[in-house]
Every structure is written in C-alpha cells, then in structure tokens.
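SEQUENCE-TO-STRUCTURE ENTRY
===========================
What this section holds: a protein sequence and its matching fold, both as plain text.
Tokens: labelled as protein backbone structure tokens, with as many entries as the chain has residues.
Question of interest: how does this chain fold, as expressed in backbone structure tokens?
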Amino acid sequence: MARTFLFLTSFIFYYAFGNAQFLVTGQVVDAFSHQPLAFVNINILNTVQGVSADIDGKFRIDSKVPILQLQFSYVGYETQIVGIHDSHEIIVRLKRKEVELAEVKILPGINPANRIIERASENRIKNNPEKNVSFTYTSYNKLYMTADFKGDADTLNSLDTIRHRESRAQKLFDKQHLFLTESVSKRKYLHPGRNHEEVIATRTSGMKTPLFTALGNQMQSFSFYDNSIKLFDRVYLNPLVTGSTSRYLFILEDTLYSGKDTIFVLSFKPRPGKKFDGLKGVLYINTNQYAIQNVIAEPFITEGLFTIRIQQKYEWVGGRQWFPVQLNTDLYYNDFSVTDTTLVIGGGKKTKKDSLEGKLKIVSRSYINEIVLDPVLKKNEFGSLELEIAPDASGKTETFWALYRKDSLTRRDHQTYHTIDSAGKASNLDLKIIALSALIDGQLPWKYICFDLNRILNVNDYEQVRVGLGLHTSRMLSPWFTFGGYGAWGFADKQFKYGGDISLFPYRKNRDYAVTYAYSNDITESAGISFFQEFTNLSAGTFRNELLAVFDKQEIQKISIRFRAMNYFLCNLYFSEEKREPTNDYRYGFAFDQGLGSVTWNQFYFTEAGFQLKYIYREKFSEFLNTRISEGSDYPVVFINIAKGFQSAGTLRGDFDYSKYEFKIYKRFITPKAGKPAFQLMGGYIQGNLPYSKLFAGRGTFVNYSITVPNTFETMGLNEFVSDRYLAFFYTHDFGRLFFRKEHFQPQVLFVDRACIGSLSNAANQFNMPFKTLEKGYFESGFLLNNLLRRGYLGIGAGIYYRYGPYAYSDETKNVAVKFSISFNF
C-alpha cells in the first residue's frame, strides 16, 4: 500500500510539475530615471541557469522547477535579489552604485579579458555581416524627441523628488513627446558594398513630409565591427580592432551561460594617458565564434553639441551568421535643457532656483527582422541612390503599421500624434519644412517664387558693399523648370549688375540633369580658379569671395547641359560667348623692339566650349524632400575642367585660340588614432597666349586681419603670382580634440603645409599689372586652433602661418600671417 501511494504521488508530481514550465517575465529599469536597462544579467539564484534582458530591458525566463528567487546584476549597478511570489510579471528597479570602485590594477601576466578580445578581433571579418554575406531584411524604426529629467540620484532628497515629480515640464513630457516619427524600410545588400534601402512606410507627427525618416539609421554604424565606429557625426576607434588592448583597458566583469555557449561580459575604456577618439561601455562576447552578442557604448569624452549612447543586440541567424537585430540610440543635446517654465539654451539663466533640469534628447529604436542570408540579388538592382522613399510611404493604414510595430503605440505616442498632428495642420508645418529645405539651398520660397538669399548682401574689396535681389520660380509652380533673374548695386564702383536664366529638368526628382541658358552683365574674379560644384553654401571656401579685389567686367551668355553618367560622374557641357574688361589699368598686347612702342588693348572677347567633371567613386545618395542628397564617399573627389577657345570674327567673336586644362583631387582620411589628415592636389595648363583675365592667379588669401580659408595660401597675396601652368599641393592634419580633452576647453588643433610651383610663358604680353611667377616654388606652413570660443553651432578660433623658401621676405614680420577662423559645428 505504501509503495502504491509513493508511486501514485511520484506519478502525479511528475505530470503536474515535471513537465511544467515555470515562467517569469518583466522589465529591468533604472531606479531613478525609470529608463530601461539593456542586457542585464538575470540568474535563478544559486544556479547557472539564466538569461539577459533584451535591449529594451525586457526579459523572459522559464524553468522546469519553481522559480523562487532571481538575481539581477549589471555593470555599474548594485546586484539585487528579487523574490518571486504570486506575480510572474515583475518590474525590477536597479540602483546605481553610490561609490565608483577604484580602477582595477592588472598584475603581471596576461589579462584574461585581453585574451577574449584578441579572439573576438581575429573573428571580426567572419562575424561582420557586411563583410561576409549578402542579405535582405525589413526594419521597423521609431524615433522621438523628449526630455530626460535625471538629476543626481545620490544627492536628491525627498523634497527634490517631490519637486521632480510635480514639475510642470515633467508632466508635459509624461503626457507626450515633442515629436514622433515611425518608418518601415526594406534593405538589400549585395556583398561586397552594394546597398539599397527603400522606405515603404513613414509617419511623422505634425507633417506628411518625411523629414526625419533616415535620421535614426544615420546615428550609428550598422554593426560594431568596422575599424571605426560612427556615432552621429563623429568617428571613434573600435575596441575590437587589432592591437586595441594597447589602447583600451578591458575588465572581465561577469560570465554568463547560454546552453553550450559562454558569454563574457567585459567593460572597456581608453587606457590612462592614451590620446585618441575612444569609447567606453560594455561588450558581451559569445564563445560561439567569439562574436558580439550585445554592446553598449558611448564616447569616453563628452564633446560638441551632443552626447550619444548606443546599444546593439545580435542573434545567431540561420545557424551561420551573427546579425544585428536591434539598434538603440539616445542622443542628448548638451546646449538645450528644460526647466519648469522654459527652455534653457547653452546654460542660460534658469527661471527658478529649485526647478530640476531635464536634457532634451532624441530616442531612436530600430528592430530588424525578416532576415534572409544570401538571397538572389543582381548588380543591376543597385545604383547610386542608397535610400529612397516609396511614393505611397506616407499613406499607410493602421492595419499595415500593426504588422510591423514591435509593440503597440503607448499612451504618450497616441497623444503625440493627436496633439502635434492638429498643431501641424493648423500651422501648415509641411509647407514650412519645404521652405526650410529651400533655405539650406540659399533660397526662401514664397508660394510660386523663391528669393535668392545669396543675392541680398555681399561684400568684397572692389564693390565694398553689394546689395541686390534675386527671384526664381519655385517647385510649386513647376518641378520641371525654373526661370528668374537678379539685379545688384555696388556702392564703391557705383555700377548696376544684372542677369537671368532658365532651366529645364527632364527628371523631376533628380536635378543632376538640367539644360540651362544664362545671361549676365556683372563682374567676375580676374585670373580666378574654379571647378564645377566645388563649394556648398556653408563651405568655408566661400569666405575667400569676401577678400577679392581684382575683377573684370563680364558680359556672358552660356548654354549648358548637366547630367550624371555611370552613377559617379557629374558632367557639365557648355558653350559660351564672353566679353571681359579689366576694372584696373591692366592691358594686354605686344611691345616692339628698338623702341618702336607697343600695341595694347583692354577689351577681350572669348568664344569657348568646355567640359566640366566632378567624379566621386561610389558616391552615395539619399532621397530628402524629393531631392537627392549626397552622403559622400570614402574615395577621393576629382574635378576636371577642359576648355577650348576659338578665334573668330562675326556674330561669335573670339580673339584667342587656346586650350585650357585644370584638375583638382581632394581626399580626407579619418583615423581615430591620429585625427583627420587631408590632401589636395590641383593644377592647370594653358596652351596658347591669353590675357591676365584667363590665367591662373593662384589661391592666395593674405589680407590683414582676415578669416582663414582652407586649402588656400594664407600668406600669399590675392594676385601676387600669376601662371599659365602650375601645380599646387595642400596638406592639412586635423588632430581634433586629441591634445585638449578638458570638459570645458576642447579646441581643435590643425597643422597645415602648402606648396606651389608654376611658370608664365607670355609675361611680355602683360602690361600695367604687377605680378611674380612661381618657377622657384612657394612654401608655407601653419598652426590653427579652432573653437577657442564656442557658442552653439558657431566656433571662433585663430591661426598663425609662416611663409618661407625662395619667395620669403627679408623682413620676417611680413612672412607671418595671423588670422581668425570660423567653424560650424553640426
């Protein structure tokens, strides 16, 4: 009887409990900020069975025996043991450690963490999906702006906590975000290096315009395996590169177990005294191919306008490849903060002494699924446009969104859409965003016309102050064409200038293709050097225009055809008729021997056909507001100009028969260990005799107390030298903030070296224009400190440059140029 009872009891227990799965789910958050904590280690107490929280702090742990206690451990936080009672869905709040532990000292011998890192480094290529396989996937992306009211958890007393919770600003951000955007995109990647992503759905609070669609994907590198890790606008040395143990300090913090695999938890940060752009954070290395399973990283030194923190989670896909499945980014604005009643910018005065301050931040979450390894892809499926938006992307239904969202929208999400959609519609926010994009191009749209902002006010040494007005038709009138004109008045020369143009665009979204006719009666730099689409509106190179002093009066009409060939060649064919007249006493002509005098003149006619090229191998583009925006390339930028002048009479008058060839090559390297070196090589050659107007005056920018201009000769006068053949070399090494790492003093250090050589074959034809030639070679070097003073996006610095070699002055003080610098920090 006893045996029967024992057997029945064992039988019931086995079927009631032996096959049961005891389940506990929940989320781990910071005890003070309530923000989710990613990758927290969770173990059933006194066992090796455990899991890690996911990137949102959520976890699920099951067992065949009842779970009585769970242990939660996390780098930088106090370990916590939680009893499991009736509720199997729990919220765990971990507290930060109040006292930082003293730095771990590694005794003689091999640091065990270094062995792990070296194995992970050896497998870097194998574990990097972009270096190993082709793939496709679908991603759901969510991005919103809010405020983080953290404060200092160690010093907050109960009264502070009450104020914190009752803050009006806190209540506002508890209710809704400042804005919210979602997108769904499909990406395909053909190894090696061919990439295309299409946004098939997008939704943004307050607007239909997909302004922030690609922002989340651009905040961090797709995977944590490249030599350099890109976080928003900066690049950092990957702690997994070969030899990183000499620069980074790695500490083995914990060891976890997942089936047959072991997961090593390692913290990392730059070693003391090492100067490079480094990161700090935590790596989870899985012994399955010694791959990254999770990573948390942020810059070791906080600098610039933003502080950024990323998290990445990887999974073993298809039994063959580790692949990122979730990317998180938190971007904090350093110069923007929120109090009870106001937005404080740049550390300005607060309105209440006792109000707690919150940091504005952007939160980005990307969830990757539907991963397919080595799908059938063809090269002709890929072009230079890497990111584009489907025409119907902004019209998706809630049913569609529900298929892709990882979780349903929260109460705050719904409120954000409801409130800001109403406000955006009332204020025509979409139209204002379109206007903002035009502003970036130097235009201010107003219904069917655009005001050319670049025409309103200009200064130079010849006109002193120039005011004007330019108008063109906007895309609202037609995306297929534009026409317009301008007028301007120079206060010093007291001359009116004017011009007009009309352009046709065969492709509505791609303005790389255009046919243009233009006419102008204006002034232009004499002996200037320029290349097709060389500068942007915000380029520092445009500062040189404010220094110019030697101009020609120019009347020109030109027809041009702009097009893109083979993805990477941006070409411009043109034909022009031009009249030039120097604004000084310069004359061109011939002097006769034996004192017979000379024949000179100062009006020159040119009939010219030309070809201009801008080439960037593997240049990539994204679609933004129906416009293609260049994302740049890792390869050099090449410019080529070829022009042919015709000597003729009659309707098309040309006084000179010549050929003119010019080129420029520019390349900048990014090396987190040693800054950003950049090289520029440029030159020109003229076959035939030409007046000063069409020669090469070099790119000198020496004017007392002027602004420094990159890739110019800072100690050379603007028209000091002239050539009909020349070669110039510019080298700049930007060390960034490697030398100055203080929290409130981080100037940017640059060293420059420049050289030029040239000659002039028809110097005897040039009259009344003092100049030198460059046969002996011109040299200068300099030192620059950018951002000595910084306010928001604008930085002010200073540089000193020294002229030496055959053309140096005997008076050493004349060889030195001291200049200010202006930098834009985005």
